[in-house]
């Protein structure tokens, strides 16, 4: 079902986003031994400014198809934020299974550095709250809720971390330990952008960005694109299926929800998973912030809510450990392409399943769980990939 994939991640990519897309799509087609004319489905996504600094693009799926010379009979635009890559994989899989398309090209990513530049240098910081709301809104009640300038989404996840500590006593050191274990994995990954020794003290001594989150607990925006092809036909890759899938949407602003902010939508999406998680060989978990991984692991049911701190201390979450988590180092060490960590965790699942992860390969990676989050904990996608017997 997965015919080919390719990616490119750089701290700053010197070409255009279309150059980046063309390069990764070309390599994924080469792996699949296909040409653009063989593709009859296209799925993509977009966020403001990631396409060479443009605030918005009309019909991105058509825009990209035209540039690549593809004439699709099936298109889709997935707007799940950071979880979009994971959802795109499922929708492509479903489109092929249903006969809507034979071979679907998925393209996700862009320039995170351009979004960062617009936010910092493009005059956005000079706008009043009213002017800013006329450009970009997160919900229909922003003018009543966002009366102060915040660091979206860092401020929100800082509140989650503070709340988790208040309710359950989770410490800065316990969050830092997760960052240390993911860095261990990254040090074996030749493609990781951030490497080198890292201790708990290094993390807790790094500067505070939004209390209590520190610099080394937060992913770094980069430029990057992942392209992958799902379809019928033979492939040099291992036969892959989606064994189980669950998704959920929480549309309400977090202050309006009837559940505490220490919970993610994963607590509901995992209920749709029909697979014994004790048989999972690797967990690829959305990790824009350390606290995200901790709350997701709780909500997946690996440990009851509030006990994740001790869980991290008592278990080895590295590639050599009993519960491998984010085996390539996650986006904390790979960087976050176009503000979407789901790109990193999904591709790592592809690599692990196909025994292509080289120095950070987990032995016997036959069943891999991928969990994606999008927005302010508004979307969760949980899926298990494996080979159907």
TrEMBL record:
Domain Thiolase C-terminal: 275-386
A GO MF label: acyltransferase activity
PANTHER family in alphabetical order: ACETYL-COA C-ACETYLTRANSFERASE (PTHR42870), LIPID-TRANSFER PROTEIN, PUTATIVE-RELATED (PTHR42870:SF2)
Protein name listed in UniProt: Thiolase C-terminal domain-containing protein
Source organism of this protein record: Saccharolobus shibatae (strain ATCC 51178 / DSM 5389 / JCM 8931 / NBRC 15437 / B12) (Sulfolobus shibatae)
């Amino acid at each position: 079902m997965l015919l080919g994939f390719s990616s490119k991640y750089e701290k700053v990519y010197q070409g255009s986003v279309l150059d980046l897309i063309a390069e990764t799509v070309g390599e994924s087609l080469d792996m699949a031994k296909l040409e653009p004319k063989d593709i009859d489905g296209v799925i993509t996504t977009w966020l403001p400014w990631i396409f060479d600094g443009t605030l918005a693009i009309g019909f991105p799926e058509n825009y990209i198809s035209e540039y690549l010379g593809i004439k699709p009979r099936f298109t889709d635009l997935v707007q799940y934020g950071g979880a979009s890559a994971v959802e795109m994989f499922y929708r492509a899989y479903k489109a092929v299974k249903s006969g809507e398309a034979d071979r679907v090209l998925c393209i996700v990513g862009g320039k995170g550095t351009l979004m960062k530049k617009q936010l910092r240098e493009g005059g956005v910081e000079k706008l009043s709250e009213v002017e800013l709301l006329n450009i970009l809104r997160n919900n229909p009640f922003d003018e009543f809720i966002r009366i102060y300038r915040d660091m979206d989404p860092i401020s929100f996840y800082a509140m989650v971390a503070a709340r988790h500590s208040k309710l359950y006593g989770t410490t800065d050191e316990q969050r830092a330990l997760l960052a240390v274990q993911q860095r261990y994995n990254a040090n074996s990954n030749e493609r990781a952008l951030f490497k080198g020794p890292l201790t708990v003290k290094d993390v807790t001594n790094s500067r505070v960005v939004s209390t209590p989150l520190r610099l080394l607990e937060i992913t770094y925006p980069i430029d990057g694109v992942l392209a992958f092809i799902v379809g019928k036909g033979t492939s040099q890759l291992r036969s892959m299926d989606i064994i189980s899938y669950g998704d959920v949407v929480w549309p309400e602003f977090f202050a309006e929800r009837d559940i505490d902010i220490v919970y993610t939508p994963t607590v509901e999406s995992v209920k749709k998973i029909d697979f014994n998680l004790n048989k999972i060989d690797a967990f690829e978990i959305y990790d824009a912030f350390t606290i995200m991984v901790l709350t997701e692991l709780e909500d997946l049911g690996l440990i009851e809510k509030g006990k994740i701190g001790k869980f991290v201390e008592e278990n080895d979450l590295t590639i050599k450990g009993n519960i491998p988590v984010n085996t390539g180092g996650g986006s904390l060490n790979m960087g976050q392409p176009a503000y979407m960590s789901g790109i990193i965790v999904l591709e790592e699942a592809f690599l692990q399943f196909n025994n292509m992860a080289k120095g950070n390969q987990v032995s016997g990676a036959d069943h891999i769980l991928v969990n994606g989050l999008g927005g302010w904990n508004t979307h969760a996608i949980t899926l298990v990939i494996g080979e159907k017997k």
